[in-house]
Amino acid sequence: MDKNQAYKLIEKQIKGMLPDIEKTLLERAQHVLSCGSLSEDDLEKFLGDQGSSYALTKAIITSWFNDKPYEPPKHLTEYVKLFNRLDYV
């Protein structure tokens, strides 16, 4: 498979995954807002006036990715090696 074909497949797969990622991120946002970890002052500070700041949203997204939601199980060593290689790109 050439790199153009690979890119097209990856693009299609990413676009197919986006609705699930969006749903999961919105659920995480709901959890963050309902768990009591943020005060009203925090919300004003990190969302800004009428959502002018993306700090809180970026923090929610980053924290979700830091959980490595798509990381393979340790027993799938070939996939673990792939993930490790991509960490250095």
Strand content: under 5%
The biggest beta sheet reads: none
**Oligomer state of the chains in this structure:** single chain
Secondary structure tally, helices: 4
Distance between the termini: 21 Å
From the spread of the alpha carbons, the general shape counts as: elongated
SSE series:
HHHH
Class by helix and strand content? mainly alpha
Helicity range: over 70%
**How many structural domains can be distinguished in the coordinates?**
1
Mean pLDDT: 95
Gyration radius from CA atoms, angstroms: 17 Å
How many distinct beta strands? Answer: 0
Q: Which stretches are low in confidence, meaning pLDDT under 50 for 5 or more residues running?
A: none
Q: Strands, helices and their partners?
A:
Blueprint: H1 3-34, H2 40-47, H3 55-66, H4 77-87
Describe the protein.
This protein is an all-alpha fold. The chain is built from four helices and no strands. α1 packs across α3. The chain starts with a helix and ends with a helix.
Task: Give keywords.
mainly alpha; 4 helices; elongated
